[in-house]
Amino acid sequence: MSVRLIKAQRAVEGEGFEVRRPFPTQAVPHLDPFLLLDHMGPTTFAAGKGVGTSWHPHRGFETVTYMLDGQMEHRDSMGNHGLLNPGDTQWMTAASGVLHKEGPSATMQRSGGTLHGLQLWVNLPAAEKMSDPTYQDLRVEANARRDEPGATIRVIAGSLFGLDGPGRTRWPISYAHVTLDHAATVVTDLPEGHRVLVYPMTGAVDVDGTTVAEGVLAIVDGATLQLTGAADRSDVIVLTGEPIGEPVARHGPFVMNTDDELRQAFRDFGAGRFGAPTD
Ligand code: CO
Prior knowledge:
This protein is mainly beta. It has one domain (2-241): Jelly Rolls. It is built from three helices and 26 strands. The protein has a seven-stranded antiparallel sheet, with no helix packed on it. It has a seven-stranded antiparallel sheet with strand order 2-3-4-11-6-9-12. The termini are far apart. The structure holds cobalt (II) ion. Residues 56, 58, 63, 100 line the site of cobalt (II) ion.
């Protein structure tokens, strides 16, 4: 087993919310099939001071947003309108293209509060990039869950820890959230041939003798994964995905295979082919 660490860099997104971003960076442009990981918060804001994004397009991949704390609100040009509460996942397969906006919910805006979440971008293979967009609202109750001594395991998609998550994937990936008390240990087999990422959103975790702190991404190689809590309480995200192995041409909100396809995406967006805002 090997463990490689990447410390998240600070970046500013949308209307000015700060994220910690392990990738993409100049050194690590993507971790096939994953394109981006943004750790949002924890950010505490006063009433009326929350920030999100304005309407913007995506094409060629999926955005997967998972909430740990607070409430996010989402609208898209397919007419979906969702509220994400702690433990909920919003799985937006942008594919051929959608417009969306996301940010603290109207309720949170009125009250102020703490927002803490994660947004993952999952690439799509060439054959799926121009397919129809879809949207899944996965409620906390739908997560596959098991409690063990000092640990809670929730699987949102794919198979890990002997649990099958509810998320429908277009490409083989898995997504789990493990909460660990200090010194509690959980073990899972890893899907063969998958890239494996471990990211503590809070606390710290020991992976094969390496301590991974909050805000640090571990790229793990091996057949099984053992996680041991290295803080009073740790919220650890485990991601696995089969590499797609195709060329990646990306610019801002579009991720295609070629520069020509990127230019087409900008033309289509300019021509209004991504739909219209719904508020
Ligand atoms: Co977006």
